[in-house]
Structures are given as structure tokens and as C-alpha cells.
Amino acid sequence: MLRYLAQVTSATIKSATARPQRSQSSRWWATQKDRWRRVKVLNFKRLTNALRLRSEFKMATGQRHQNATAPPMHRAWPMSLSVEPTTSCNLRCPECPSGLRSFTRPTGMLDPKRLSSLLEGPNGLGRDLVYLNLYFQGEPYLHPGMDDLVQVGKRAGLYVSTSTNAHHIDETRAEKLVKSGIDRLIISIDGANQEAYSSYRVGGKLEKVLSGTQAVMQAKSKLGVPTPHVVWQFLVVGTNEHQLDTMKSMAATFGVDEFVVKTAQLDAPRDGHPLLTKDAKLRRYDRSPEGRWTLRNPMLDQCWRMWQSAVVTWDGKVVPCCFDKDADHAMGTANNASEFRKIWRSDRYGAFRTSVFTGRSQIDICRNCTEGTQVWA
Question: Using CA atoms, how far apart are residues 159 and 243, in angstroms rounded to an integer?
């Protein structure tokens, strides 16, 4: 551990090691408080909507065995929404369409007025939503108004999160980030040294991730606030799986609130793939006796995501799932809440939900999805 830290800047080392390691019980308590913050945004209307969602989903799973049509969405609205700040990214991660620059859809930035039109007002989605995730593809903090986007969600009374590679977070930026009121900040950190980190985060600098983390933790301390709940997310792949224990120790040293392991989505898993882990518990795929690499668990013809969440791209396309990265299954374009609500209950959306319940394995974006499996997605 100390040999690793010597490779980082001396300033980062000094401040990171000046305090004792964060205890497991301290991080457990921080996680419980974060869960409470998610629950406490529930009011009567949001709770009623959540119960209706669950009821309609159970009805759909019951009718799946009787006919080929999922019931329409009569009463409930999504309780979770992902909205994309931008498709731009500074890195070149090999399994990411942003990194590969492989999108067929345009690159751009979310207009804060679009988000306001979606969430605010008497008919706004904020009335029913609980969770707003300001992330889909790209690096959110490349958006110059990212803090303003967060504040739109907070004005609507929502729990707000995002995911970042932390390359654009310095001391000044970190203080603004904390003041924005964001509830949860997921920081991708995929290696305990530069070699392992950059094997996946191509073009990235581990030192920037560490200094960005440190800046946010110091800003929280300076301002005396518990948020954001800072999560280090370790995308475990073949080139870094041997560093898992070291990463856990580093998370305690840097004082983050939570450390989680994420398994890697691979477009074409195969023998010898450099990102496939040796440890089967750390990957989504297993090799069949015939030599085919497939998702480990059976794929059920049902999906809770189709009921409780949706995604809106930076230019307003409504897509059914975060696995539809190129918006190939866009259900329509929503410039405001009324347009979104029409799309949510449209025949087209209903037909897509039905297709999930009758042949999910035949849908391209579902074939590599972990919904309903026992691996962390």
C-alpha cells in the first residue's frame, strides 16, 4: 500500500495518510443514512405511485402466463428517471460507446430548461419521481451547468445522484459540487496504480481521481455537510482483479463513504478476452461446455425496469432502459412533462413492454442485461 502511495503526488499522500483509516462501522452508518435520505423524499403521492407501480408489475407478470399482452400502464408513473447531461467524454474506455466514439446519435449538452420542463410544475414528473440519476452516457461534469441541473432536481424534492470519472473536480469545483446539494456521487476508480487504471480508463490519470476524491471529502468537511454520499466504484476486470483488496484498503484511507464492486459488461466475451476475470464471482459470464460465453443466469421474460424507470437523452429522446445506449429503441421525444407522460402510456411503449414479457432474449439490448441475475450491475 505504501509503495503504491509513493507513486502518487506527495501532496496527495500527505493529506490522505494524515487521518486514520475510515472504519467499516463508520462507512456502514454513512450508508444507512444515505438509504434514509432516499426514503425520506417519499410523500403520500410518491408512495402511492410506487405501490401502484408494484401492483401493475405484479399484474403484468401474472397475465404473462395467460396471454401475450402486458396490461397497459393505467395509473402509475416511473419512480426513477435517468437524464443524460452530455454524451461527451474525456476518456476512451474500450467497452463504452462514449469512449469509442461509436454513437450514431449526436453529441451534445442537456439544456437545463428541458430538465426544468420535465420535472417542475403541477404536472411535472417531480410529483411522482423519487430518484433522479443525472447520468447515462458521457462525463457529466463536462457539462458547464451540471450543478444547475442538480439544483433543478433538488427543487423538485428528489434524491439526486450522478457518476463521474472525477477528472474535472478540483478544490474550487468540489466546493460548488457539494453546495449544489447532490445526494450521491459515484466515482469510477478502476485500479490501484496507473498501469491497471489506464488499462481500462484509457487516457485517464489515477492521480486526478484521487485528488478529485480528496477535494470532495475536504469540501464536505469544510462545509459541515454529510452529502454527497461518496462511492468509489471499482469496475473489476482481468487487468485489475488482483488489486481488489488493495482498493478496499485505499477506500478506507481516502475516507470515502462506500466502496462497491461492479462487474464489466462485455459486448463480445470470448476465450482470452483481457477484461474477463479469472474469478467467476467477479464476472457476468460463464463458458458453456460448447465453448460459448453467455450471461451466467437464465434470462426471465420480465423486467422491473420497464415499469419503474426510464431514460431521457440530452436531446429529449425517451428510451426504455440504460442498456439502450445508442437510443435505438427511442419511444419518442419529450420536451416537457406532458409529452413524457403521453409517451410513457403510448401504444408503442406498451408494445415494447409486451415484447419483454414474451421474448426478452430476442431483444438486442436485453441480451447483455443483468436485470434479474445475481451479478452486480
Answer: 32
Question: At residue 287, what are phi and psi to the nearest 5 degrees?
Answer: -95, 125
Does the model's pTM come out above 0.85?
yes
Give helix 112-119 / helix 337-344 axis angle, nearest 10°. Answer: 60
To the nearest 10°, report the CA torsion of 106, 112, 114, 117.
170
Distance CA 167, CA 268 (A): 29
Burial-class residue 234 by CB neighbours within 10 Å (0-12, 13-18, 19+).
buried
Residue with cell string 462501522: 25
- Are 255 and 217 in contact, with CB atoms under 8 Å apart? yes
* Cα-Cα-Cα-Cα dihedral sign, residues 282, 237, 190, 324: negative
Supply φ then ψ for residue 14, to 5 degrees: -60, -50
| Mean pLDDT, contiguous 10-residue spans, the chain (377 residues) | 44 48 90 96 96 89 61 83 95 76 86 97 96 96 97 98 97 97 97 94 95 97 97 95 95 96 87 89 87 80 89 97 92 98 94 88 82 49
